[in-house]
């Protein structure tokens, strides 16, 4: 496997894990059950969301910073696309801060996954075509923030989170 495939594969894994945690949280919230266990699950999920989403924000922001000067000024459509991506990053940062500050972890997680489903999932921005035109392997190295330590840390955090969910609710790392 070449380096680009490894970098892109790890970023895709991190995004799949985020979706898996969101889906497991939704299932745990719908299942209800012991309020203390549910609050503990939501606190653990909040920790994972904080770690994972901050990485994704950093990656997406780095992509925008690298791409913006390379896209010709006359290409208003792609500059508007980059503006939209940066706007989504800012809305996501605000939602993440609200999750982290929520006095009730269950309500905080419920609101956050509603934000993901209602806002982020509906505003998917594809800048893939800009990567094909303007990106090099050096850019992927700089913007992905992927190295051996980051891969191990993300895997450990995701694996540890499995134990936080109530019986019958599992994290499916292949969820998308």
Structure overview:
α2 packs parallel to α4 (105-120). The mean pLDDT is 90. Helix content is 76%, strand content 0%. The chain is built from 7 helices and no strands. It is mainly α. The protein has one domain (3-161). The protein is globular.
Features:
0% strand, globular, 176 residues, mainly alpha
Summarize the structure.
The protein is mainly alpha-helical and 176 residues long. It is 76% helix and 0% strand.
Helicity level: over 70%
* Overall 3D form: globular
Strand count, sense and barrel status of the largest sheet are: none
**Which secondary-structure class do the elements indicate?**
mainly alpha
- By DSSP (H or I, 4+ residues per run), the number of helices equals 7
Describe the secondary structure blueprint for this structure.
Layout: H1 3-31, H2 35-67, H3 76-101, H4 105-120, H5 128-134, H6 137-144, H7 148-161
Helix pairs in contact: 1-2, 1-4, 1-6, 2-3, 2-4, 2-6, 2-7, 3-4
């Amino acid at each position: 496997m070449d380096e680009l495939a490894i970098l892109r594969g790890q970023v895709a894994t991190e995004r799949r894990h985020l979706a898996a945690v969101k889906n497991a949280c939704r299932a745990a919230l719908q299942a209800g059950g012991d309020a203390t266990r549910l609050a503990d699950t939501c606190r653990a999920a909040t920790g994972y969301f904080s770690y994972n989403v901050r990485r994704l924000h950093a990656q997406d922001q780095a992509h925008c910073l690298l791409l913006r000067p390379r896209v010709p000024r006359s290409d208003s459509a792609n500059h508007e696309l980059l503006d939209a991506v940066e706007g989504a990053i800012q809305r996501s940062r605000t939602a993440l801060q609200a999750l982290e500050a929520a006095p009730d972890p269950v309500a905080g997680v419920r609101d956050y996954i509603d934000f993901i489903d209602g806002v982020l999932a509906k505003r998917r921005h594809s800048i893939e075509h800009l990567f094909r035109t303007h990106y090099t392997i050096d850019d992927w190295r700089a913007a992905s923030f992927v190295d051996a330590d980051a891969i191990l840390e993300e895997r450990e955090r995701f694996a540890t989170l499995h134990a936080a969910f109530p019986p019958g609710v599992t994290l499916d790392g292949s969820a998308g």
